[in-house]
Amino acid sequence: MSPAKPVRALALGMLLLGALPTSARAQSEIQSWVDPTLGQLIPRAEYGLTYYSGERVERQPTDLQRTEHSFSLSVPLSQDSRNEWALSANVSLQDLDTRAILPDTGGRFPGELWDVRASGSYRHQLDNGWIAGALLTVGSASDEPFASEDELYVRAIGMLRVPHRESNAWLFSLIYATDQEILGGFPIPGLAYLYAPSERFKAVIGFPFTSVEYRPLEPLTLEAQYFPLRRVRARITYRPFRPLRFYVGFDWDNDRYFRADRQNKDDKLYYYEKRLTAGARFDLRHVGIRLSGGYAFDRFYFEGESYSDRDHNRIDVGSGPFAAVQVSVRF
Q: 60 vs 29, 54, 57, 284, 319, CA distance in Å?
């Protein structure tokens, strides 16, 4: 039995902790570079559009309407059964229609928040069956991306997969990120264990990521994942037949950016939200489409060095509905 899906999930957790502060809703298949099977990467492009209704900004005479665009492209450069080289690029934009003011420092709240990044990855299978991998990401998350070096970030991951018994594995990692909320700029080691006793149950237990996947019936899958420090993802998926899947879920997410004219260069502009989601996915060999919608709540922005500063320059946004569409193409 192949442990590929839980290993992908582990890497996603690591990337969300240290290398990718993007929303958990963008995580599906983003980092398949850690699949234990080498030499099967395919070029892939993906575009997503999410629309949030305009909702009231608390304590200010204005609303906030948000439209989110995301685009990603991944291309293998060279690959065989023992080695893989790949490049990827990702661009996301929060387009914000609001007249909100930053309450503590003054000034208009940004109308656009960008995250633009490029990554390179390499994986190698050793003679003993262990797999070593590395990922380097350079990007800028800001209302004015690449305005200066203060809006840049660097993130890196090193990983070693050590098989254990028939289908289990130890997963060692080392994470470095200049924009990490906790211990930013310092390498953080990780250790997790992949436990896959059957095709119906798989779990990754450890740090920096925990995941459980259970399939009580062939068409039904239950998933729960935790990404430190404040990210949670839960899904119930039903597949009536192979190309079509329906799902419901809950997400607790956050993003972070560097405003170009912030007063403290160590500050980040954080966005937090929780979501109840329902949707459908239809995946053919080369094209996939996902339609979803739901209700977003407990939404707020703040600016500070960490979550403990969440009352500084805080903007609370009312709860409301959202709708999303995502199209992926595999070449």
A: 40, 14, 6, 47, 15
Name which of 177, 75, 89, 80 is nearest 123 in CA terms.
80
Residue type, 262: R
- Residue 65 to residue 80: CA distance in whole angstroms: 47
The tens digit of pLDDT for each residue in 293-328 reads 999 999 999 999 999 999 999 999 999 999 999 999
pTM over 0.90: no
Report CA Rg, the chain.
20
Look up residue 110 and give its DSSP letter.
P
Note the pLDDT tens digit of each residue in 75-121. 999 999 999 999 999 999 999 999 999 999 989 999 999 999 999 99
Report residue 228 as tokens: 């430190």
Answer yes or no: are the C-beta atoms of 280 and 288 closer than 8 Å. Answer: no
